[in-house]
Amino acid sequence: MHEVNAHHGGNHMSESRKVIVNGTEYVVELEGEGTSWKATVEGKTYDIEMPDAPPAPKQRRSGGGKKKKSGTVSANIPGKVVTVEVSVGDEVTEGQVILILEAMKMQNEIQAPVTGTVISVHCEEGEAIEANVPLVVIEPVPEPETEE
């Protein structure tokens, strides 16, 4: 019997993820490295294999850390605003539908790119809009500082 020690250190990852399975939301504690992980759901632990798991990310990226996501929402094609789902002062979460835009005879749900507060709305229902014009501006919630 021999023991394998990871000499590269720091590749052991532990994180908490929210997942939705058949419409039910669970918080999963993931712990592991490489392809072998343990997932703990509601007190039960499962061994899982992720054959195509990417190598653990390096925390430091060149170029000064995280790329800030923009809270400015614009359409990449001209269209007509069908409904505006938010107003100034609303709290929104990333992925939430904030307006519906009709373009080329199709209705498109436009989602919030960031979690934050709506600080301005530059469109109204029934309005024809041009491409790349800011429609809604969201002030992002500051990212929690990550330890290095």
Can you describe what's shown?
This protein folds into 2 domains: 13-49, no CATH class; 72-140, RNA polymerase II/Efflux pump adaptor protein, barrel-sandwich hybrid domain (OB fold (Dihydrolipoamide Acetyltransferase, E2P)), CATH 2.40.50. The chain is mostly beta strands and 148 residues long. The chain is built from no helices and 12 strands. Helices cover 0% and strands 47% of the residues. The two termini are 36 Å apart. The chain is elongated and about 55 Å long.
Keywords, please?
mainly beta; 0% helix; OB fold (Dihydrolipoamide Acetyltransferase, E2P); four-stranded antiparallel β-sheet; 148 residues; elongated
Query: Biggest sheet, in brief?
Result: 4 strands, antiparallel
What proportion strand? over 45%
**Could you report the average pLDDT, rounded to the nearest whole number?**
79
Number of helices: 0
Q: Tell me the structural class.
A: mainly beta
CATH third-tier fold name of the largest domain: OB fold (Dihydrolipoamide Acetyltransferase, E2P)
Radius of gyration: 21 Å
Highest CATH level, the class of the largest domain: Mainly Beta
Number of strands: 12
Low-confidence runs (pLDDT<50, min 5 residues)? 2-9
The CATH homologous superfamily of the largest domain = RNA polymerase II/Efflux pump adaptor protein, barrel-sandwich hybrid domain
Shape-level CATH architecture of the largest domain = Beta Barrel
Q: What is the total domain count?
A: 2
How far do the termini sit from each other? 36 Å
Order of helices and strands: EEEEEEEEEEEE
Overall 3D form: elongated
The strand order across the widest sheet is 1-2-3-4
Residues in helix, %: under 10%
